[in-house]
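Risk register update: the risk of archive-format incompatibility is retired. Evidence:
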Amino acid sequence: MNPPTHAVSRRYALRQTFFFSAALALGAKTRRAGAAEIAPADRHFLMIGDWGWPGDKKPQHAVAEGMKAYVQSPGLKPDGLFLVGDNFYGDFPGGLDCPRWKADFEDVYPADAFPGPCWAILGNHDYDNEPVTKLQAELAYQKARPGTRWTMPAKWYRFTWPAENPVIDCLMLDSNYKNSVVSLTPEERTEQMAWLKAELAKPRRAPWLVAMGHHPLYSNGHHGDTKSLIDDWGPLFQEHGVDFYFCGHDHDLQHLEFAGMRTSFVLSGGGGASLHDVMNKERGPFAEKVYGFTHLQVNREKFTVRHLDADRKQVHAFSKTPDRKIEILT
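Archived output:
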């Protein structure tokens, strides 16, 4: 049955997801990704969120080392790296000249391992603690440091990849509606909504349309669902057939599907910050308190998402076709 074209109610989605996810999860196993699964002709991207922890850096470095080893897999040449927010927790002295640019970003995710762009969006901790210094530095770094892979031209932006015959169309959003220190102003929130509606109304250039923001619409983790995003973005994603929404904020790895919804919801928040417990055990098909990263493998006929832990062990994977058929990979 085709999904409805109108917005699905949140209550209906929450009621239906248990039955859907339970069926998908039957027989799922944990295993290391096999080289035969990685098609060299496809486009490959890695993703992390919640990574710039200022304290114990061992988890961040362990995940980064796992990613470095993973990209040595036969046939895997990453096009780029997605950074889905909370890029730098804590103080950020010096702004553009802060030593954390080198210590926490350039050196941990070096160009020889990850040569492509690093598309970044803002999390709530990118706003707090010296909000002007940190926020302005993240927005200005790309222009001020020619040659960097850091890519954040604005608080929200769009790009397609690759430029010729693109396979993925990305809407990079600022989900910081309310934060204890500073967030989007009401005027910015209105401006972004108008921009999002206009961008979604444009013809697709690629077969896959994805949106990314730091905060989840739906999450089984510590922070739970974000009602304001469900209300603002959920109907638009449904109306325009957004295939995926990727995010972080909860410090774990998740994949949520809802009956009748066109969008798959994927959370990748295990990049290095202290982990969060999974709070909701009934929604699925997957949520786990684990450090790790996400691999996106994309071609015109299939979009494959793999969650891997810091040791490169695949903890969950699924594929999706343009007609929205989901297959959990075991």
